[in-house]
Predict the structure.
Amino acid sequence: MEHYHALIESAHKKLVTADRFLNFTFHIVNEPKLLLGVAENLLNASTDMMTALLYFDLKYKFIQPFKEELHHKLSAFRQAMLRHNLAESSIKLIEELNAIVLSHKSCPVEFVKNKSLIMCSKNYECRALTFEMTLEYFKKAKIFINSVEQSILKHERDYRRFS
């Protein structure tokens, strides 16, 4: 099994975990702090799928080797997006999810208000995470993951035919 196939499988598992948190556990527990777990799973699933595409392109020598840091992967992904006809919004999704996760890690104050998770920075700049926002991120991540997988499978079939 190629490395990118394992990453695709990992992305799907993380997407299923996010789905269960969002659509089952959240409604039972009704705790907005669970939304952060959903955002982390969506970020990890999206970055796994992005990395799978990069390793696929690396295997067929369409891109140069890249470093494992997120900003290096995003830079390489911008080149790969054009080849695979992926939307520019994919990068924006990953950057937004990363910003949410990073702001939570660096926030000294967080609290729940009106069914939202509010995260405040040291300067008390607040960022809210709501169920509706998380649901929208989930829909976008699912579309992104499916479109990347379809692109990889299509190109993989094409390359096998010519090898």
In short: The longest strand covers residues 109-113. Residues 3-162 form a domain with the Four Helix Bundle (Hemerythrin (Met), subunit A) fold (CATH 1.20.120.330).
